[in-house]
Amino acid sequence: MKKLLFVLLLFLSFGTFSQLQQIEVCTENQEYLQEYWVDASVPSQYTWTVQGGIIESGQGSGQITVNWLNVPYGIYNISVSVVSDAGCEGNTVSLMVDVDECSFDAVYVPNCFTVNNDGINDQWGPTFTGDWDNSVYKLYVFNRWGGTVWSSENPNEKWDGRFKDKLCQDGVYIWLMYYKKLYSAEMIEAHGHVTLLK
Q: pTM for the full model?
């Protein structure tokens, strides 16, 4: 089995802070093993709780590897609680994990991108393989209130995380895409979500 590690940083502080984000595990692409870690500025003890998946390694440390193999499709919660070695209790941070097949007939749609100008994964959009009709294509990205923040009819155009020239907030955005295979009269509708991180 191919093992692909997908990394998501969760930042913790020892104040009153909580963060909730969502990420997909693509079982069709065999992305069963994923790493999750917290970045705390002081030595600490970590207690991880993983709903659905199995912690392969790292319980008690700042980084764990979770195995999502054979977990039924659905949304599961990962949380971590932190207590500093000095006894200061931190917050609990949660992450919602969507276990899905993430496959749309020769179309790969990433579920996360980072708009931090490091030249890696700074833009988001689908990648097509195989025979498809590139003249029939529409893609929309919506915020959590249902407002359109970006759209395109060009399959080569990628979203840079901006709305009206202003960088959007971190979080989960919903996308809706229409496309068509070559020599087919049927329009395909696909939808999902993408997490924007800065």
A: 0.51
